[in-house]
Amino acid sequence: MKDILKSDLVNKISSSLSNFNLAQLSKEQLESIAKLLIVDKAKDEMKSIIKKNNFDYDLAKSNWLKSFKAKNTVKIYSKALDLFADYLKKTDTHILDVIAKDVDLFIISLDVTNLGNSSKRLYIISALSSFFSKLLRWDYISHNYIKGSKLPKKERGRELKVPTQEEVDLIRNVILNYENAKGKGHHKVKEVSFKALAIIDLFIETGLRVGGIKTIKVGINGKITGNSKGKTFELQLSVELAKRLQKLVLENISEISVQKIIEKACKRAGVKSYSCHSFRHFFAINHYLKNMDIYRLKELLNHSSISITENYLKSLKVI
């Protein structure tokens, strides 16, 4: 209320002053106006100093990150914000004093680092914009200068690598051969091959994201439940795969370990190296071409909207 009254008063004074020359004011009147302006500026500066002194970066960052459920998003956004905070330290700029110029120079600085990739810059800018929107909402700042930043142009997407049916069959057959191996040390080989086949079949049967593997729980009816990118999922497995997974403990398996299993399987089969996500692509393509049901595929891929699934299929050149 006080701010509104003050704003109205300032507007009235400005309107009044515009009607006559300042030279018409007496020395005493000019001094009074000057004192009021100085006091007002001092108050604003004092408020700014108090805010900066009371600002806890780690606490603000922690509270902001609570807005996100997906662990990977939290990890990426946390790193992005810390990167900007480190940049501000080098330029001796407080995070609450950031202006458009600081943001633009920071974005330029990314071009001369290994973070010049447009998709990485896009993630960083998105993270910063989200954080500064929170600061604005919490009344730490009066403007979010990240908004309006020139976003990097989207690079032409690389062709996504997807294994063929022949390659998938070859990989599975090679793993099965190792699983049936005999001789010295065959027990260890069997154990590793058993897990490898379960993981690869999990990808090609369900299109599950690698991050969701360690969260899965197998039900007695062959259905699995779990969590991926902050969203729960329920998927139906074949009887054989369900039995395999029930014999495995995957809750502590890391994404790196899974990727190594995939790479080793590809190498043994003599095919090009594929990522875990390549088998998700394989599942998506085959399921869509077989059923032509984009809405069902959206549910299976655990996408938040049908437009994401549509763009996903376009990137795979299926539609």
Please specify the SSE layout and strand pairing.
Blueprint: H1 2-17, H2 27-54, H3 57-65, H4 71-90, H5 100-110, H6 118-137, H7 165-179, H8 186-206, E1 217-218, E2 223-228, E3 231-236, H9 239-246, H10 255-269, H11 276-291, H12 294-301, H13 306-315
Antiparallel strand pairs: 1-2, 2-3
Helix pairs in contact: 4-6, 7-8, 7-10, 8-11, 12-13
Provide a quick synopsis of the model.
This protein is mostly helical and 319 residues long. The chain is built from 13 helices and three strands. The radius of gyration is 29 Å and the shape is elongated.
Alpha-carbon distance between the two ends: 57 Å
Strand order of the largest sheet: 1-2-3
What is the molecular shape?
elongated
Q: Give the C-level CATH assignment of the largest domain.
A: Mainly Alpha
Category from helices, strands and their pairing: mainly alpha
Helix content: 55-70%
Strand content: under 5%
CATH hierarchy: architecture of the largest domain? Orthogonal Bundle
**Contiguous uncertain segments of 5+ residues:** none
Rg measurement, Å: 29 Å
